[in-house]
Fold this sequence. Notes:
- By secondary structure, this protein is an alpha/beta fold.
- The chain has 2 domains: 5-45 and 187-260, 3-Layer(aba) Sandwich (Rossmann fold), CATH 3.40.50.1000; 85-181, Rossmann fold, CATH 3.40.50.1000.
- Helix content is 34%, strand content 18%.
- It has helices at residues 26-35, 51-60, 73-83, 95-103, 127-139, 164-175, 187-197, 211-220, 257-260; strands at residues 5-8, 40-44, 70-72, 88-92, 107-108, 116-119, 143-146, 152-154, 160-162, 180-181, 204-208, 224-228, 250-252.
- It has a 6-stranded parallel sheet with strand order 3-2-1-11-12-13.
Amino acid sequence: MKIRGLLLDVEGVLVADKRYTAVETATEFIRTARTAGCPLRLVTNNTTDDRPTIINKLSRAGFDFTLEELHTCTAAAVAHLGRLHARRCLVLGNDALRRPFAHANIDVVDRSEVDAVVVGLDTDLTYERLRLACDAIVNHNAAFVALHRNRLYPDAAGRASPSVGAIVAAIEYATRAEPIVMGKPSPEYFQQALDDVGVPAADVLVVSDDPFSDLAGAKQMGMQTAFVLSGKYPDEDVVESIPETERPDLTAARIGDLLGTGRLEL
């Protein structure tokens, strides 16, 4: 497989989990891509860190990326709320998630009289905050914005933990409202990253540890895909439940092993 551009997930691909310890072979893969002149972008559904923090954590793990190379679901959501002319929002998530909205002059409040409900990873979620979100959508016509719908993520202790999709599903079930999804596998999100790379979809490889969301969505847009077992799904048999047309083109234990297969050429 000859590729001319890369879209790379972060957690589970470059770093193992929220501890941001580099996956073995990952730094070597990035160096090889740089040497080959292959443009790349990071595409992450991280909702617990802002963009500078992600770049700093990656730097401490041995990577050299710029802010311009990082696409986040949070930045996409801020832009979306700007297009909606939203002035006030309820954010389910930590302080780091709330900051970008506040910096964009959107009031972040803890009440239901809002223009939008933004759902990220809220590890301190309470029933009251779920109630506020539901009341905002049902009784105040608030936009329902999901930063993504991932099912699981490996937490800072490496444990399988419910991700944003679990919170989104609870609100969706209660309100019967359909969320607008900002991050992967949203076609709009992927298209922004593709436009930034400047390479046709068919010549771009997406590498992720999530074959259900990230890679299936990328395949639907005509991109090549690679599934790595260094993150949330260590058993490649999980792809058996995915329709054949959406299954990954390549599978490897770690991102660096993709080059060792002889099936990938940068």
